[in-house]
Amino acid sequence: SSSSAASDVYKRQGLTDGNAPDSIAASAILFIALEKKMKITKKDIERECIMSIATISKCLKQFQNNREFLI
Question: pTM value?
Answer without folding.
Answer: 0.77
